[in-house]
Specification:
- The structure is a homodimer of 131-residue chains.
- Chain A folds into 2 domains: 71 residues, Winged helix-like DNA-binding domain superfamily/Winged helix DNA-binding domain (Arc Repressor Mutant, subunit A, Orthogonal Bundle), CATH 1.10.10.10; 59 residues, Dna Ligase, domain 1.
- Chain A contains 5 helices and 5 strands; from the N terminus they run αααββββαβα.
- In chain A, the strands form 2 sheets. In chain A, strands 4-3-5 form a 3-stranded mixed beta sheet. In chain A, strands 1-2 form a two-stranded antiparallel ribbon.
- Chain A is flat and about 50 Å long.
- The N and C termini of chain A lie far apart (60 Å).
- At the A-B interface, helix 4, strand 5 and helix 5 of A face helix 4, strand 5 and helix 5 of B.
- Strand 5 of chain A pairs antiparallel with strand 5 of chain B, so a sheet runs across the interface.
- Chain A binds a DNA duplex (30 and 30 nucleotides) through helix 1 and helix 3.
Chain lengths: 131, 131
DNA sequence: TCAATAATAAAAATCATTACTATTATTGTA
DNA sequence: TACAATAATAGTAATGATTTTTATTATTGA
C-alpha cells in the first residue's frame, strides 16, 4: 500500500518543472533546498517508484547516470557524444511503432525508446572554430 | 597510433560468433579460456575501442551491465522487464529515420538506437501458469 | 636489432545505485 | 483525538560496473 510522502511530491513537482532531464543527483541537490535532510536513497527510491507507475520516465542513454523526465508523451531524445548533453528532439515520433512491432513479436510489448546520438550544435560550432 | 593485439582480435572474433549480446564480464569469461591472464580492464578497453571505431555496437538498455553486439546492421532490440533478456527484434527497422531527423535538428546526427521493452514470451508463459 | 610507444595485467579507485536498519510519518479505525 | 499497523525516511554501508593507474610486455617502423 502506497503512502503519501512530502518528499515524493516535491521530487515529482521539481521534475514537472524541469525540462533538461536531470539525473538523480541533480534532483537530490534541488530538493535539498527545501528538505535539507533528504537522503539520496530516498530520491532514488522515489524516482524508481514514479517511473514504475508511469508518472515519469527513466532515460538510460549510456552516458553516465540515468536521467529522468516528467514528460511522458512519446518523443525522441538526442545525446551529444561530446558534451553529454541530452535534449528532446524537435520532431514528432513515428506513430504506431509499438503496434507494428506486435505483429512480429510473440511477447508483450509495453513501449519503446529511441534516442539519436551525434554532436550537438554547440559542440559542432566549437569544433569548427578549432579547425 | 593503433597497434595490433591478439587479445583485441580474440574479443572481436568471439563477439562476431555471439548472437546473444554478451556483457563485458561474459566476454571476459570466454576469452579467459584462451588467454587465462587477460584482465577485465583489457576487455573493457578493447570493447570501448571497437565500439568507437564502429566495428561493434555498445547497447545500454538500463538493465545492469552494458551489452555488446558485433552485428552493426540497423536493427531493434527487445528487453524483457522480467528476466532481463535482451534479444533482436525480428522485424525490419523503419528506414530513413536519421535522414528525417536531420531536417529537424541543427546538430550532426550519426545514428540512433531503438529498443522495445515489455515481457518476453517465456516470462509471459510463466505468468499465465501462475494465474 | 633497436628504440619508441601502444597494449597489457593486476590492482586500486571511482561512480552510480541499491540494501540495510533504526526512527519517523502516514493512514485507517476505534 | 488516540492508537496501532506499517510504509517511508535518513543515514550509512555495501554492491556492481566501469575506469584509472602503473610497472611490464608486445608490436612496429626504421
Amino acid at each position: 500500500m502506497l503512502k503519501y510522502s512530502r518528499q515524493r511530491e516535491s521530487i515529482k513537482e521539481f521534475l514537472m518543472n524541469s525540462h533538461d532531464h536531470p539525473t538523480a543527483d541533480t534532483v537530490y541537490s534541488a530538493i535539498r533546498i527545501q528538505y535539507p535532510n533528504i537522503s539520496l536513497g530516498t530520491v532514488y527510491r522515489n524516482l524508481s517508484l514514479l517511473a514504475s507507475t508511469g508518472e515519469i520516465t527513466k532515460i538510460t542513454c549510456g552516458d553516465g547516470a540515468d536521467r529522468f523526465d516528467a514528460d511522458t508523451h512519446p518523443h525522441y531524445h538526442f545525446l551529444c557524444d561530446r558534451c553529454g548533453h541530452l535534449e528532446d528532439m524537435p520532431m514528432d515520433p513515428i506513430g504506431g511503432l509499438d503496434e507494428l512491432a506486435k505483429n512480429f513479436y510473440q511477447g508483450r510489448i509495453s513501449g519503446h525508446q529511441t534516442f539519436f546520438y551525434g554532436t550537438c550544435p554547440g559542440c559542432l560550432k566549437k569544433e569548427k572554430e578549432k579547425a
